[in-house]
Write a structure and sequence with these properties.
By secondary structure, this protein is α/β, with parallel strands linked by helices. It has 2 domains: 179 residues, HUPs (Rossmann fold, 3-Layer(aba) Sandwich), CATH 3.40.50.620; 120 residues, no CATH class. Helices cover 38% and strands 23% of the residues. The protein has a 5-stranded parallel beta sheet, with helices on both faces. It starts with a strand and ends with a strand. The model has no long low-confidence stretch (mean pLDDT 94).
Length: 359
């Protein structure tokens, strides 16, 4: 039996139930999910599915990440709600490829872990699976493992085996709708031009889960814990001096009361130079290099290849700034001595992140 897999939280429980109910059946996992955006999120979910299948002794096949075909299939349905027409097309697309794969492999049946997802309509899934199975001359197996406290058992199992628990279905359209309803930033969909790994970003989670895999392979005791913290994202930053754009690097947690300010340097204390408005501060690139232990030759080089986020937070603290200070701190090659204009579009927000610790 070919088992289409959407994510480890759904598949881990579903596969074990199938192993119990169909003990003579050889199960093969098929990860085909071009609906998952961005690709880094797709990779992270695949990584955890590989771990789950390894734990359960199940072979796994990865399908093609043909995201362009998926986007074309749902064109015009971008604003549909969860469980709406876009989801139906999405199921059909993934079930169609899964059914074709099952037939190519000589399997007589296929199923999908989407059947255990509490966010999906079982009736909707069954109709799509049956229709495509009939077209390929095979059968669609649709057990209801949600009933009799199945969803609760699934959640308990996911927690016990420390599976990656994503908090959105997968596609960018559903994510945007969900984040709008939550009044939250959809920070999963953008990364800085520098490529710097941001706190509680998908890229940071990938680093952590890859490290967890390595620790498991080396039998190093560990645990994933959660912590609440103040997160920050910069979406745009610009410095103009006498109306000319000047290269400037915004240190993490730089925040304005609005998005725009202007003024001039009023005084300096040590190597920190203070603007006369909105608590803005400047340091030179030489000062930054001294504090960070780096050797950047230009600010442009720093902008496009900064050190780790945590290291830049340390730079803020070494400037004598308290942990609660959200003032804009700009790194420039020279301290401006003319009229300054600053555009800083940033957002700070309460967030929760996972942390891997040795035990």
């Amino acid at each position: 039996m070919l088992v289409h897999i959407c994510c480890s939280v759904d598949s881990h429980y579903f596969l074990q139930k199938l192993q119990t109910e169909y003990p003579e059946e050889k199960l093969t996992g098929f990860f085909y999910d071009p609906n998952i955006h961005p690709y880094s999120e797709y990779y992270l979910r695949l990584l955890d599915v590989k771990r789950s299948c390894k734990m359960l002794g199940i072979d796994l096949i990865e399908g093609e990440y043909d995201v362009e075909n998926w986007l074309e299939a749902v064109r015009g349905l971008e604003h549909e709600p969860e469980k709406g027409s876009r989801c139906s097309v999405c199921f059909d697309r993934r079930f169609e490829i899964s059914a074709q794969k099952a037939r190519e492999m000589g399997e007589t049946s296929f199923t999908s872990t989407l059947l255990t997802s509490p966010k999906k309509s079982l009736k909707q899934l069954q109709a799509a699976g049956d229709a495509l199975a009939a077209r390929e001359g095979i059968s669609f197996v649709a057990p209801d493992y949600r009933k009799a406290s199945g969803t609760q058992e699934q959640n308990i199992m996911a927690k016990e085996d420390a599976l990656y628990r994503q908090d959105y279905c997968g596609c960018m359209f559903g994510l945007n709708i969900q984040r709008d309803q939550q009044s939250k930033l959809a920070d999963e969909l953008f990364v800085p031009i520098s490529g710097q790994v941001q706190p509680e970003s998908i890229e940071e989670r990938i680093e952590m889960y890859e490290k967890r895999w390595q620790m498991e392979e080396e039998h190093i005791p560990h645990k994933i814990i959660k912590q609440r913290f103040l997160n920050w994202r910069l979406t745009m930053g610009l410095l103009r001096v006498r109306k000319e754009v000047v290269p400037a690097h915004f240190l993490p947690y730089s925040t304005l009361r609005g998005e725009y300010t202007r003024g001039k340097i009023e005084y300096s204390i040590g190597k920190v130079h203070y603007m006369n408005r909105d608590e803005v501060r400047f340091i030179t690139l030489d000062t930054y290099n001294s504090l960070a232990g780096t050797d950047y030759q230009t600010v442009t080089e720093l902008i496009y290849a900064p050190p780790a986020f945590s290291k830049e937070v340390e730079v803020r603290s070494r400037l004598g700034i308290t942990p609660y200070d959200l003032s804009v701190i700009l790194v420039t090659e020279e301290i401006p001595d003319n009229k300054i204009e600053i555009l800083c579009q940033s957002k700070t927000y309460s967030d929760v992140k996972e942390v891997l610790v040795n035990v």
